[in-house]
Design a protein that fits this description.
The chain has nine helices and 14 strands. The chain is α+β, with helices and mostly antiparallel strands.
Length: about 475
């Protein structure tokens, strides 16, 4: 019904536009027919005026007018039109003919002129000519006026106009019919495409087949397929998140349940406190896991949070994160500090995710650095001959056990934990960081913080992000 309504609207618009064009063309066609008829009939009117003018002359005492019969015989015999003429002194008395004929426009006329007027209640076409007498007795010229009613002219105009109008109307009608047929045939593939989409199952996100649709609709089909692909990837991300969350939370929840049951069975307050403390630690780990799962879900580009970007001071953000985690560092007897100037380092990104990225890097460093260790955060602008344009650099170093070079590519996998570690992390920290870095068109690299140290080389995580001006330029391109 919507497609039919669209076709009707298109038809009405097309008919309206063509009708307007036909009316405009009819107006011009009528003017052309009137001009053609006047050109044809004005020749006879001009010959009549000149014929009378040739027989007008002056003597010493009077102006003689000898109207030749041939001057009035030039008009079509048997015509329903009437002929009126007059000869008069220009600006003076009439010499012969009909009185009251409309005078020509003011001015001197050395040749015949033609104009329209009205005489005795009828429309007339008038020809006029002013002739000098060249006699001192009659210094003023004479004016010859011949008028003809326009019945025959109007018949010719009507004949020419209606014949031309009918021919053009027929052409427009045929063009309209062809256009409507072409529109119907052109819309049929689109109708079939719409029916195919409506008939699909709600979870069918396979690409549309646009081979049979017109070339003009191919971009629309491509856009729909692109949108279907985005929806498919978004749903896949949702399913992956639900699967990962269910898998990863099952064990902590089971542990929490077991610890709670054990605490309830204790009668001794000391044992019960010990069980509740273990329950509290497990609950904290489960909470951190849930928060990291949510952070990982937000960091995936398909979820759209990356689209809401703004200018962010990476240095100020790093200082805030370090201040927030100082309590945790003090509790673990770790020297946590930040280096670099107080100058702003502006990047374009999502503040919430950039903060999550820094928090995960610093938290990982605190978790794997032993007591008495040092964790340093550094933010600056890095650029040399190989860097064009300069990039913002975030570097987090520690003096912990580090990561072996052969495992540095796998630690970014979800839920991956280094073998032999005693920490009960979720294995999501670096995965979250990598998703955020890639979403901001940046780079991340892992290196030894102290390559010369054999036992505790530490870890240096370097994140490079485009500066705000460079990010804006790349976006515009």
């Amino acid at each position: 019904m919507r497609t039919l309504s669209l076709k009707r609207r298109q038809t009405f618009w097309l008919v309206g536009v063509l009708s307007l064009l036909l009316v405009v063309d009819a107006w011009f066609s009528y003017g052309d027919a009137q001009q053609a008829a006047n050109q044809a009939y004005d020749r006879s009117l001009s010959a009549s005026v000149r014929g009378i003018a040739e027989r007008v002359y002056a003597t010493e005492s009077e102006v003689v007018v000898d109207v030749p019969y041939s001057a009035l015989e030039l008009f079509e015999a048997g015509s329903a039109d009437r002929i009126y003429y007059s000869v008069q002194i220009h600006g003076g008395d009439i010499i012969t003919g009909y009185e009251g004929l409309p005078p020509p426009p003011t001015g001197d006329h050395n040749k015949a002129i033609f104009y329209d007027g009205s005489y005795r209640g009828e429309s007339v076409r008038i020809g006029a000519l002013i002739k000098p007498l060249y006699r001192p007795e009659f210094p003023k010229p004479v004016m010859i006026v011949v008028a003809e009613t326009t019945n025959a002219r109007q018949e010719v105009v009507a004949h020419l106009f209606f014949r031309e109008f009918a021919r053009k109307a027929l052409v427009i009608a045929v063009a309209l019919a062809v256009a409507l047929l072409a529109t119907i045939f052109a819309v049929k593939p689109i109708d079939r495409l719409g029916q195919t989409i409506r008939a699909r199952h709600e979870d069918d996100l396979t690409p549309l087949d646009g081979r049979d649709v017109p070339a003009e609709v191919q971009p629309l089909v491509g856009a729909i397929n692109h949108h279907l692909d985005r929806i498919g990837r978004m749903l896949e991300a949702r399913r992956r998140f639900i699967t990962d969350a269910a898998h990863q939370l099952r064990t902590p929840l089971a542990v929490l349940n077991t610890q709670a049951e054990y605490a309830l069975r204790q009668d001794d307050a000391g044992e019960m406190r010990h069980a509740v403390e273990a329950l509290h630690r497990s609950l904290g780990q489960a909470t951190r896991l849930a928060n990291q799962l949510l952070s990982l879900s937000r960091a995936e580009p398909i979820n759209g949070l990356m689209l809401k970007q703004e200018e962010v001071d990476l240095a100020a953000l790093a200082r805030d994160v370090v201040i927030d985690l100082l309590v945790l560092a003090t509790r673990r007897d770790i020297d946590l500090g930040i280096e670099g100037s107080d100058a702003s380092v502006m990047v374009r990104g999502q503040p919430l995710l950039l903060r999550e990225m820094i928090s995960n890097l610093v938290d990982n460093a605190l978790r794997y650095t032993p007591a008495g260790g040092v964790v340093t955060v550094q933010v600056d602008v890095q650029g040399d001959v190989t860097d064009s344009p300069p990039m913002a650099r975030l570097r987090v170093t520690d003096n912990g056990p580090g990561i072996p070079s052969d495992s540095r590519s796998t630690v970014f996998l979800r839920f991956y934990r280094l073998p032999g570690t005693d920490h009960t992390g979720s294995g999501l920290g670096l995965s979250i960081v990598k998703e955020i870095v890639l979403g901001h068109h940046g780079e991340i690299a892992l290196d030894d913080a102290r390559p010369d140290a054999a036992e505790r080389p530490g870890l240096a995580v370097t994140v490079r992000l485009p500066l705000a001006a460079a990010a804006d330029s790349a976006h515009e391109e």
